[in-house]
């Protein structure tokens, strides 16, 4: 079936500006999963600018499948009840540019690479940036991934999180410059 | 190599060069002309450009590589689900969050959230935040010496109905000074954060008010380089939405765009 032509022009995006915290902040927004629940992992990183300085006024959103690979359709992302897994979270960077989420490792269909969909917003960023945060654990699936296999090794590395010895995930986002994160359009 | 540490955010807010408005306006005009030339030469340009030096804090924060075009996967074609479980109805009225009434012009902002094919986006979340009527944000980093209003926070949320419609009651925000350049003032605006039917449609933008004399001077508004796109961010005064003895009414319709795959995704629901 063919996609019909678009009839409306898209509303353009704008920066979130400096004062988004009281507008888009809410209780336990970075706790996609309860911190002390079995299977919860910490996903953390730092947002950097073009000279390697941390960005203290950014925020990151993630949306991820549950551990079985199924995309959650449940409500409750804004009213956390500590047991419903909605897959969505939002984290502000702190004064050191650091963000963190408590969440679950997303699952994937067999042979496919698992990732979080992620969006970055910041003062000084005229529009949002889409990216992905892949789990590093399944090397064969990563090698076969349609996006990653198209990228040079340095670029590919910007999309794959690092698994730390304690099981947590570490993933920095570089808006500009050396090791600049690969951002996506669809 | 020394590792840079985070600078106190207050000092980050002022651009170091403090250019004149004349210089900033000149930079905006030449960038717009250059972008129009590139488009005429066949380049496919986004509505909002990331590389826009008149917005000084973007200089070190915009990507320099072209974004990678990718086929969205399932997680990107769906969206977090919201409903009244997440947002109480009173959250859409920014004038009743405190004991007293906020100062300023009471307004309603209403509109419809649709996709590019005109289909309503139902049961999705819209968040707004804004300065008060004096142009002051409640955020602790806002040092503009205009009064805070003890009866106004300036943040609200709504869930769209089955027709994709939303409505907020608030106070018209004032223009607000910032430190991008000397004598820099932002046109009055309300920040909007919108979820579409798919994560690829996620949108954060700003709504402006008709006839603002600051439009041509503002580097942020002008990161949207086409006139027709900037026009779409200006709310429309609608006397039909104005309520007698109560509030003036503005219409602001929002269109979220996604790749072709989002058309199928929402047809099947």
Fold and architecture overview:
The complex is a heterodimer of chains A (186) and B (269). With 186 residues, chain A is mainly beta. Chain A has helices at 21-24, 139-144, 153-157; strands at 40-48, 58-63, 88-92, 98-104, 115-122, 129-134, 162-163, 169-170, 173-174, 184-185. Chain A has one domain: Protocatechuate 3,4-Dioxygenase, subunit A (Sandwich), CATH 2.60.130. Helices cover 8% and strands 26% of the residues of chain A. In chain A, strand 5 (115-122) and strand 6 form a beta hairpin. Chain A is globular, with a radius of gyration of 17 Å. Chain A starts with 20 loop residues before the first helix and ends with a strand. Chain B is an alpha+beta fold. Chain B has helices at 9-12, 21-40, 74-77, 227-231, 261-267, and strands at residues 68-69, 106-115, 125-130, 155-159, 165-171, 176-178, 184-186, 189-194, 203-208, 236-237, 248-251, 254-256. In chain B, a hairpin with a 5-residue loop joins strand 6 and strand 7. The model of chain B has no long low-confidence stretch (mean pLDDT 93). The chains are: A mainly beta (186), B alpha+beta (269). Chains A and B meet through helix 1, strand 5 and strand 10 of A and strand 1, helix 3, strand 3, strand 9 and helix 4 of B. Chain A: Keywords: Dioxygenase, Oxidoreductase.
- Give Rg of chain A in angstroms: 17 Å
Give the number of domains of chain A.
1
Q: Average pLDDT across residues of chain B?
A: 93
Low-pLDDT stretches of chain A: none
Along the chain, the helix and strand elements of chain B come as HHEHEEEEEEEEHEEEH
CATH architecture of one domain in chain B: Sandwich
Multimer state: heterodimer
Distance between the termini of chain A: 20 Å
Class derived from helix and strand content of chain B: alpha+beta
Give the % helix of chain B.
10-25%
Largest sheet of chain B: 5 strands, mixed
Low-confidence stretches of chain B: none
Q: State the largest interface.
A: A-B, 79 and 91 residues
* Beta-strand percent range of chain B: 15-25%
Share of residues in helices of chain A: under 10%
């Amino acid at each position: 079936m063919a996609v019909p032509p678009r009839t409306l022009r898209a509303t353009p995006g704008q920066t979130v500006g400096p004062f988004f915290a009281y507008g888009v902040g809410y209780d336990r927004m970075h706790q996609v999963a309860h911190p002390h629940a079995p299977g919860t992992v910490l996903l953390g990183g730092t947002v950097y600018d073009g000279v390697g300085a941390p960005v203290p006024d950014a925020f990151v959103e993630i949306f991820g499948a549950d551990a079985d690979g199924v995309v959650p359709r449940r409500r409750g992302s804004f009213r956390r009840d500590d047991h419903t897994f909605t897959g969505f979270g939002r984290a502000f960077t702190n004064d050191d540019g650091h963000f963190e989420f408590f969440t679950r490792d997303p699952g994937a269909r067999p042979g496919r690479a698992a990732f979080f969909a992620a969006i970055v917003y910041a003062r000084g960023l005229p529009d949002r940036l889409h990216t992905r945060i892949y789990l590093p654990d399944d090397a064969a699936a990563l090698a076969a991934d349609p996006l990653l296999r198209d990228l040079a090794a340095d670029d590919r590395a910007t999309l794959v999180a690092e698994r730390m010895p304690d099981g947590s995930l570490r993933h920095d986002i570089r808006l500009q410059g050396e090791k600049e994160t690969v951002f996506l359009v669809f | 190599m020394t590792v840079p540490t985070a600078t106190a955010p207050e000092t980050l807010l002022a651009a170091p060069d403090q250019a004149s408005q004349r210089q900033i306006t000149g930079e905006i005009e030449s960038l717009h002309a250059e972008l129009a030339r590139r488009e005429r030469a066949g380049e496919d340009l986004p509505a909002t450009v990331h590389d826009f030096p008149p917005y000084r804090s973007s200089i070190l924060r915009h990507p320099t590589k072209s974004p990678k075009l990718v086929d969205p996967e399932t997680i990107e074609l769906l969206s977090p689900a919201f409903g009244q479980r997440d947002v109480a109805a009173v959250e859409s009225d920014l004038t009743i969050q405190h004991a007293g009434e906020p100062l300023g012009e009471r307004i309603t902002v209403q509109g419809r959230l649709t996709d590019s094919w005109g289909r309503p986006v139902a049961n999705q979340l819209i968040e707004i935040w804004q300065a008060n009527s004096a142009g002051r944000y409640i955020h602790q980093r806002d040092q503009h010496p205009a009064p805070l209003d003890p009866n106004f926070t300036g943040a609200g949320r709504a869930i769209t109905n089955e027709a994709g419609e939303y409505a907020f009651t608030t106070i018209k925000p004032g223009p607000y000074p910032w430190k991008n350049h000397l004598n820099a003032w932002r046109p009055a605006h309300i920040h909007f954060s919108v979820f579409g039917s798919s994560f690829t449609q996620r949108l954060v933008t700003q709504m402006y008010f008709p006839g603002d004399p600051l439009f041509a001077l503002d580097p942020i508004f002008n990161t949207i380089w086409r006139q027709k796109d900037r026009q779409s961010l200006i709310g429309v005064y609608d006397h039909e939405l104005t309520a007698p003895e109560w509030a003036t009414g503005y219409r602001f319709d929002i269109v979220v765009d996604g790749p072709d795959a989002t058309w199928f995704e929402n047809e099947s629901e």
